[in-house]
């Protein structure tokens, strides 16, 4: 039976460390890190994510400002708002919660953010610097996964890592990070997506599987080799009348059967999701300390 990679426990530990770091910064320089978040519209999942980011900021002593904009706001107005945050010296870092309404170009929005304040790590400058192994903000979900692998001391060097899903926010950066010549890294990486043929030929040979698809219970035990490390990024809301919210959160892995075979596995919920917010807080602290960009 696999060991659980416990995102709840680990994120609590890192959060305590961050709280101490924030206190130290305040004593040393009188500065309180300040994160702003822009939320466009009222998408239920986005509301939940942003609320959790704001709450977790408060818990570690980071100041947060939530900026709510109407669903029908023009792209130009959003870009002006971003320019204001870029120019505001009181804001160390900020995020624009994705997805955006379809009439707004996510790419133009991301590129408008000053890369020095881009604590989500989505700006092409941060992605490029990350790929070159230069100091950069690393996107929060992949960063959280790296932290998990590091803190659980899971060997990665020389291992075969299969990443399933090639989104700009998870799969693609994850594949780059796992291949880098860094302490968590040095993997031989295969990046799979919807055009991959015979997916299980790859997953069956993988020492580490990182799956970010959004298809509940997609990865089954017959697709996984004994003792593999399985990281489940997927979060899908599935109707569930037994829950107060009316839905349950499901991962991309058929947990019960894969856990029988894997050496380590992340649960959903209680795995990668919590680490993601922790990484955003970490990036905000780096921004306040001007550790990446002076
Ligand atoms: P996404 O943009 O939804 O894209 C899904 C990816 O899966 C695409 O690259 C797609 O391939 C690939 N795919 C779809 N069907 C496939 C199949 N049958 N075989 C192989 N690949 C297939 O990805 P995302 O934004 O990374 O989100 C993925 C999941 O992670 C979602 O459930 C999301 O809610 C969750 N998520 C969780 C966190 C967290 O903090 N835990 C953070 C972000 C996202 P193509 O590129 O060919 O279309």
Describe the structure.
The strands form 3 sheets. The protein has a 6-stranded parallel β-sheet with strand order 1-11-8-7-5-6, sandwiched between helices. It has a 3-stranded parallel β-sheet with strand order 3-2-4, with helices on one face. It has a two-stranded antiparallel ribbon with strand order 9-10. 40% of the residues lie in helices and 16% in strands. It is an alpha/beta fold and 294 residues long. Helix 1 (7-29) runs parallel beside helix 10, helix 2 packs across helix 10 (272-288) and helix 6 packs across helix 10 (272-288).
Quickly describe the structure.
The protein is 40% helix and 16% strand. It is an alpha/beta fold and 294 residues long. α7 links the parallel β5 and β6.
Instruction: Enumerate the strands of the largest sheet in spatial order, edge to edge or round the barrel.
Output: 1-11-8-7-5-6
Count of beta strands? 11
Distance between the termini: 47 Å
Largest sheet: 6 strands, parallel
* Overall spatial form: globular
Total separate domains: 2
In percent terms, what proportion of residues is strand? 15-25%
Unique ligands: NADP nicotinamide-adenine-dinucleotide phosphate
The helix/strand order is EHEHEHEHHHEHEHEEEEHEH
- Over all CA atoms, what is the radius of gyration? 19 Å
Individual helix count: 10
Class by SSE composition:
alpha/beta
> What fold name stands as the CATH topology of the largest domain?
Rossmann fold
């Amino acid at each position: 039976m696999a060991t659980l990679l416990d995102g709840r426990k680990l994120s609590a530990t890192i959060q305590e460390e961050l709280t101490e770091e924030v206190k130290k910064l305040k004593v040393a320089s009188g500065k309180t890190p300040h994160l702003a978040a822009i939320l466009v519209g009222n998408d239920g999942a986005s509301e939940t994510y942003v609320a959790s980011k704001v709450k977790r900021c408060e818990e570690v002593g980071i100041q947060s400002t939530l900026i709510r904009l109407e669903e029908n706001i023009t792209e130009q107005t959003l870009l002006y708002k971003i320019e204001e945050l870029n120019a505001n010296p009181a804001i160390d870092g900020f995020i624009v919660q994705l997805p955006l309404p379809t009439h707004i170009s996510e790419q133009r929005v991301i590129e408008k953010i000053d890369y020095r304040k881009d604590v989500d790590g989505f700006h092409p400058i941060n992605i490029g610097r990350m790929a070159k192994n230069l100091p950069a903000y690393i996107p929060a979900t992949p960063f959280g996964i790296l932290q998990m692998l590091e803190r659980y001391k899971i060997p990665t060097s020389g291992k075969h890592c299969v990443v399933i899903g090639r989104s700009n926010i998870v799969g693609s950066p994850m594949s780059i990070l796992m291949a880098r010549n860094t302490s968590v890294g040095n993997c031989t990486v295969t990046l799979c997506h919807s055009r991959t043929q015979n997916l299980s030929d790859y997953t069956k040979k993988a020492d580490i599987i990182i799956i970010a698809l959004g298809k509940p219970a997609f990865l089954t035990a017959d697709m996984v080799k004994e003792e593999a490390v399985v990281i489940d990024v997927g979060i899908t809301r599935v109707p569930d009348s037994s829950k107060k919210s009316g839905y349950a959160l499901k991962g991309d892995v058929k947990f019960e059967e894969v856990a029988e075979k894997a050496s380590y596995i992340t649960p959903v919920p209680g795995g990668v999701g919590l680490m993601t917010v922790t990484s955003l807080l970490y990036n905000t602290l780096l921004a306040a300390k001007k550790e990446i960009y002076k």
